[in-house]
């Protein structure tokens, strides 16, 4: 399914496939969005699939919202790839045997 974006009251519903081929549509729709709006809500519930280029496009939009001090919310279960990209991970801890000497 091609990418379809609908908008109502700053809520953007994204349907279809967000990939390298559909990025032109996505980027054109969200170009300078934070110059016009302070709050943007993306509903990705109907995104059928997303590739690395699609995840990076959402990440760029997220970074733009931070640099311009605007609010971006992404809702919907959408695709696992997107959550894997944005999830926070626990810092790795290293187990050191008792009595070991550790140089820093």
In short, what is this structure?
With 104 residues, the chain is of the alpha/beta class. It contains four helices and four strands; from the N terminus they run ββααβαβα.
Give a structural overview:
This protein has 104 residues and is of the alpha/beta class. It has helices at residues 23-30, 33-36, 52-67, 80-86, and strands at 4-8, 11-18, 39-50, 71-75. It is 34% helix and 29% strand. The chain has a four-stranded mixed β-sheet, with helices on one face. α3 (52-67) links the parallel β3 and β4. α1 (23-30) runs parallel beside α3. The mean pLDDT is 82.
Tell me the series of helices and strands, N- to C-terminal.
EEHHEHEH
Chain-averaged pLDDT: 82
Beta-strand share of residues: 25-35%
Low-confidence stretches: none
Overall shape: it is: globular
State the distance separating the first and last CA atoms. 54 Å
Tell me the number of strands. Answer: 4
Secondary structure class reads: alpha/beta
Oligomeric nature of the chains: single chain
How many helices in DSSP terms?
Answer: 4
Largest sheet data: 4 strands, mixed
Q: Rg, please?
A: 18 Å
Strand order of the largest sheet: 1-2-3-4
Relative helix content:
25-40%
